[in-house]
Structures are given as C-alpha cells and as structure tokens.
Amino acid sequence: MGQLITNASVLNEQGKLESKSILIIDGKIEKIVDANAGVSLLFDSSTPVEEQRIEKVDAQGKLVIPGLIDMHVHLREPGFEYKETIETGSRSAVKGGFTTIACMPNTRPVTDNPETVKLVLNKAAEAGLAKVLPYAAITKGELGRELTDFEALKEAGAIGFTDDGVGVQSAQMMKDAMYKAAALDMPVIAHCEDNTLVEGAPVAEGEFARRHGLKGIPNESEAIHVGRDILLAEATGVHYHVCHVSTEQSIRLIRQAKEIGINVTAEVCPHHLLLSEEDIPGLDANWKMNPPLRSPRDVQACIEALQDGTIDIIVTDHAPHSEEEKAKGMQLAPFGIVGFETAFPLLYTRFVATGVWTLDFLVKRMTADPAKVFRLNTGRLEEGAPADLTMIDLESEQAVDPQTFASKGRNTPFTGWKLKGWPVKTWVDGRLVWTANVQ
Ligand SMILES: NC(=O)N[C@@H](CC(=O)O)C(=O)O
Ligand SMILES: [Zn+2]
Ligand SMILES: [Zn+2]
User: Fold this and answer.
1) Could you read off the pLDDT of 120-140 as tens digits, one per residue?
2) Which domains are assigned to the chain?
3) Catalytic positions (predicted)?
4) Is the CB of residue 83 below 6 angstroms from any atom belonging to ligand 1?
C-alpha cells in the first residue's frame, strides 16, 4: 500500500519550483518523477502488484516540501499537562507542518533521568504524530549543581544536553558537561543567560521598559554566556549549539568563533526576526518571552546573521502557558509564546512573499539545515528518504486565530496577523497525520 502525490510543486536542487509526482511506499519516498510522466516511470516491473494499489492525492497548485524540523520546543509533559501534553503539542506541530520536533527537558520531573526520557518517547509513540526527539538536562533538576548521567541518558534515547529555561551559571560545570558530551559525541545546547545581570526583569532594556517603569534585561546577559561557552567549546571540542540567539553581541561572537573553526551552531526564533521591543503594544504578557524582544538593531542583526550563515537554523521555542498564567501581567506571568502553528506562515509572509528571501532559503533553514546540524535522517525530499512531507497552500490568506490552535496554549503576540503559507497536509513516514478541513 502506498500513496501517490500528483502535481506537487517541489523545490529542485537549484531552488526552483517544478511540478512532480511523489510515490510513497512503506513510509519512504520511492520515486519522484515529472508530473506529466507516464505511470510506467513510477512503477518498474519489480514493484509488487499489491503495492500498486495506491491512494492518490492531487496536490495541484500546492507546495510540497520536506516536513519541517523544530529543534527547540516545550511539550510540558510530564508535569505541566495543563499547559500542553505530548499529544496536543505534537498535534500542534503537525498542524504547523512540523514532522520532527526536539523537546526541552524543563518538565516536572525534569528530564534528567532515563525513565523520563523513555516516558517522553513512549508518549510520543502513542500519540503517533510528529517524531519527538528528547533532550536531557545537563544538571539534575536543572539546578546547576550536579551533572546528570550523560551516558545513561544517551542510552535511553536523549539526543543532546541542555538546561533550557535557565543558563548554566557555573563555567566549571559547563566545561565538565562539554567534556562529557564530547566524549559521547553528543551536542551541548545552551540557554545563554547570566542571572546576575537579569534580576527578575520581564522585558529587554530599552524604551518599553523605561516607559512602563520595568527593569530591563540587558543584551550582555545573553552574550556573556555565549562568549564564555565558545571558549569552553574551543577547549573541549564539543559541538556547542546556542539557543534562541537574540542580540547583535552574541552574533558577533558566534561569527568570530565560526571564522576560526570552533564547532558552534546557532538558532533563531521567528519572533526575534519579526518583532522588536518597540512593537510591544502594552502590558500584555503574550509579548513576554525569554530572551525578550530586543531593539530593532538586534532584530536586523538576527536577520543578517541568518542570511550570512552565522545563525544556522530556525526554531520556534514553542512555549505554551495557560491563559490564567499569562493573565498575571507583564511582571508576574511566565516567559514564553507558542510557535508551531504560526512559524511557517509568518516567515513566508514577511520574508518570502516580499522577496527578501527565496522560498528555498526559508525551507532549508527549517528542514535540511537542522537535519545537518543534528545529524538527522530526514529533512530532504529525495528518493529513499523517509516520507516526512508537508503540503503548503501559498495562496490563501488567513488571519491568526488562537482559538483554532491545536495547542493548549493560546499565548501568541501574532493574533489577527493576516498571513499566507498555511500548511494543509502533513505526512510522517508516509502516514497522513494532519489535513486541513478546508482547502
Ligand atoms: N522561551 C521562553 O520564554 N520560555 C521557555 C523557556 C526557555 O526557552 O528558555 C519555557 O519553558 O516556557
Ligand atoms: Zn531558553
Ligand atoms: Zn525554550
């Protein structure tokens, strides 16, 4: 049994669109041929007759790309199921076109032990939606005091180590973690934040903070960790990946590190490419996230860094919270916004539809490049690859409506934004895991 997606608009090697038919057999891309090629090109004589009974999907006028990959997400389970579960989070992911997602360990208990890694993997398998790759914590309880058992966590299925949600405050602790991770050929993924420079500030330093009499988070609180960790990565040889880069200072340091061959990679979130602190309309905690929205200068630096390869990939940092929590106001509400269901349309509308980026540029930063950085066997539309695919409608315009989200989280600053580029169907290993009601 298989599927045949006909008349799909597909990006070729040169990044140009071509009309293709994609044959999927046993969860893999069996063949990709010109859309008007005859059936004989799709099936050779070795294809068993029963496999020729295939389901047809007409993709006329729609883009088909490799399933999106999101290497930084919060699924909240175990412990915070009122915010999100692995099931609702992965449903939100596939609705947003993501087929592979890597989830952060700041759950309760923290994913600092093999049992919790396995629980996450089992729940993800039960949900049967996106492929879920768990990260494990660097330190027990993400408390920064004692390293976790890296070997056992790797053995249980963790794909990297991070204390996301907090920075590892001790340089020695980080260095020890990097040595251990390097020996296991595993990456260290860092939330960069020096707590002594933050002191409970809810937003970035700048005009908004001044106007509202709020403390500001300075750019150095991020960049100091980036600089420190780059030196430690140089000393230890680990693959060091910087989370949610948001400042021009961090970018400068990453650029220099890459120039001299240090094994550093970096990610950026859609909101840090689209919004600055000047856009925050008032004391609404749907605009509160960590790192915070910074200055227009930082936004410009993030865009340029993605364009010149200093930043490798785009991630959402999908961070659902309940409405009650977000109603506590700018000072008291938790940091974080949801991201799965708006990421692609936001970036497509802002950067591709306007001609700033090619479609190929955006798609690569969300598919092939994260796969390359984290050595994943997906993210490409090629014969023999897993049939992780996303079909996208580039024409219809629709406003962001949080009430329609599959996520339990409604916390987005993008409500009402009119966007194009909405995913309409998602396949994981050849299984249709999501389809839009109206097309
Ligand atoms: N990004 C956020 O604002 N919040 C994240 C934590 C994190 O990514 O640091 C969360 O877990 O809610
Ligand atoms: Zn973080
Ligand atoms: Zn995060």
Assistant:
1) 999 999 999 999 999 999 999
2) 2-64+385-435 (2.30.40.10), 67-373 (3.20.20.140)
3) 317
4) no
